[in-house]
Write a structure and sequence with these properties.
six-stranded mixed beta sheet; alpha/beta; five-stranded mixed beta sheet; 209 residues
């Protein structure tokens, strides 16, 4: 905690804007964050809070490494990268699911190695390992949906929100692995030394979520 302020890493984009609204409603506003500016860090000394925007997948890194005291990250990021942080609260927003999808009518016969395209190798590996299923993980960073269409993979593991992209590409959800939502996380040392202040934020967010 620098200069006595709690540093908060917010994910860029619509989710981050929604989450900031929750912080403001909980009693931790910072008006300048809403201004049209190129500033990266926004402070409200009266509330003892500092916000900054980062790429959603980087929030957990900032919190784990102590550059932020707390932050908001998707459950998918926490499951995939398993950062050494405390998960304090399910904010119940940014809801979606991690799912297996494939061509409509696809059935896994279990006889051959299943080819799975995904950005989430650890989640995929852990899920199929628990089933005792032999898989070949194909790690992709772009549009995962095209992999089974072109025969690169049998199925995909990806985040599904509305399912529109899947339907438009003649794919469908075959199995849901885990529901996903935004979580409030904390650096472990920051929580130890600033527990009362962080818990005050948690309680405020619980009231408005």
């Amino acid at each position: 905690m620098k200069n006595g302020m709690i540093s908060v890493a917010l994910p860029k984009g619509r989710l981050g804007e929604k989450v900031y609204g929750m912080f403001a409603s909980a009693g931790f506003p910072c008006d300048e964050i809403l201004e049209d500016t190129r500033k990266l860090i926004f402070e409200n000394p009266l509330c003892g809070i500092r916000y900054f925007w980062v790429k959603p997948s980087d929030v957990a890194i900032y919190v784990e490494r102590g550059a932020a005291d707390i932050g908001v990250a998707g459950k998918d990021i926490l499951l995939e990268y398993q950062p050494d942080v405390y998960e304090l609260l399910d904010l119940e927003c940014g809801k979606c699911r991690m799912a297996i999808a494939g061509p409509a009518g696809f059935r896994d016969d279990g006889l051959t190695t299943l080819r799975v395209a995904t950005k989430f190798a650890n989640i995929t590996r852990n899920y199929y390992s628990a089933l005792g299923r032999d898989i070949d993980i194909i790690h992709l960073n772009g549009s995962i949906e095209i992999a089974p269409i072109l025969g690169l993979s049998d199925v995909i593991v990806d985040i599904v929100e509305t399912g529109t992209t899947l339907r438009e590409n003649n794919l469908s959800v075959l199995e849901t692995i885990v529901p996903i939502s935004a979580r409030l996380i904390s650096n472990k040392a920051a929580y130890k030394f600033g527990k009362d202040r962080i818990e005050a934020i948690v309680k405020g967010l619980e009231r408005v979520k």
